[in-house]
Design brief:
- The protein has 267 residues and is mostly helical.
- The protein has two domains: 92 residues, Response regulator (Rossmann fold, 3-Layer(aba) Sandwich), CATH 3.40.50; 129 residues, Homeodomain-like (Arc Repressor Mutant, subunit A, Orthogonal Bundle), CATH 1.10.10.
- It is built from twelve helices and three strands.
- Strands 1-2-3 form a three-stranded parallel β-sheet, with helices on one face.
- The chain is elongated.
- It starts with 29 loop residues before the first strand and ends in an 8-residue tail after the last helix.
- The relative contact order is 0.06.
- The C terminus is likely disordered.
């Protein structure tokens, strides 16, 4: 009652008889509080409802379950509220109660009563949009990729971890992130390589290995395709005053053998 005394005239019923009979004015709302609802208390609620069908009932309960909420709804309880009462829920309830009181007083004697608009908050499980749910399904995967993008990542294992088929995982991943799984990994590795080129003096071959590329030749080709220039040109553009240290070129046979290798990301 302490929540509402500042806004309403709250009176505690002295007996289990119909509240309001000892007062001149009929109450606008009957509030029934339950710590742990039992058969006796719930039957009392039904008895009050039968005795005063025109007075709405608010059921406050500490113990909550889906079955209890359904029971309250089927018993035509006007409002079912789980305690403790949050500030947001209290504000919403008071707003609805004000509307109800105004409606009951202004429509006295009218044949057709206007509809009362009530906007209860949606449960968290329903509030999420389909787009949010898609992001939520891949959140753990994206966190894992963030930590292991330099390693060999198996897309099929990630799909299985999410409870999806590889096809559905691939389609959902691209729908959420705008790029496919392989391209996403490649972009992560390129960003890491550019960071090392810009902020270290590591040899370019070593940078390729550090970024997760097992093939230096493929790293050079992929970097030029993604960035538009070679790794050495990128480093020189970032630090034009630093002289370029030529790295030993691969022998023709070694380069040809490396070119035939596949990239280090497993599909």
């Amino acid at each position: 009652m302490g929540h509402f005394r500042a806004s309403y005239d709250c009176r505690l019923a002295k007996t289990s008889s119909l509240p309001g009979r000892e007062y001149k004015q009929q109450p606008d709302m009957i509030c029934m509080h339950f710590d742990r609802p039992d058969a006796l208390g719930l039957n009392l609620l039904l008895e009050v409802k039968r005795s005063a069908p025109s007075i709405p009932i608010t059921m406050f309960t500490v113990q909550h379950s889906e079955e209890l909420a359904i029971w309250a709804m089927r018993s035509r309880v006007w409002e079912y509220i789980v305690l403790p009462l949050s500030a947001t829920e209290k504000s919403r309830y008071l707003h609805s109660l004000n509307q109800l009181c105004e409606l009951r007083r202004n429509t006295h004697g009218q044949q057709h009563k206007p509809l009362l608009e009530r906007h209860p908050s949606l449960p968290d499980s329903i509030r999420l949009t389909a787009e949010h749910q898609k992001h939520q399904a891949l959140n753990k995967v994206l966190d894992y990729i963030e930590q292991h993008f330099r390693d060999s990542i198996d897309q099929k294992e990630l799909a299985q971890h999410c409870g999806m088929t590889p096809f559905r995982f691939s389609r959902l991943f691209k729908e959420v992130n705008g790029v496919g799984f392989m391209e996403y990994i490649l972009d992560k590795r390129m960003d890491f390589a550019k960071e090392l080129l810009n902020n270290s003096q590591m040899p370019i071959t070593s940078i390729g290995y550090e970024a997760g590329f097992k093939d230096p030749s493929y790293f050079a080709r992929a970097f030029k395709q993604c960035v538009g220039c070679t790794p050495s040109d990128y480093r020189q553009a970032c630090h034009p005053t630093v002289p370029v240290i030529a790295e030993p070129e691969l022998e023709a046979t070694t380069a040809a053998a490396l070119d035939s290798l596949k990239p280090g990301i497993r599909a």
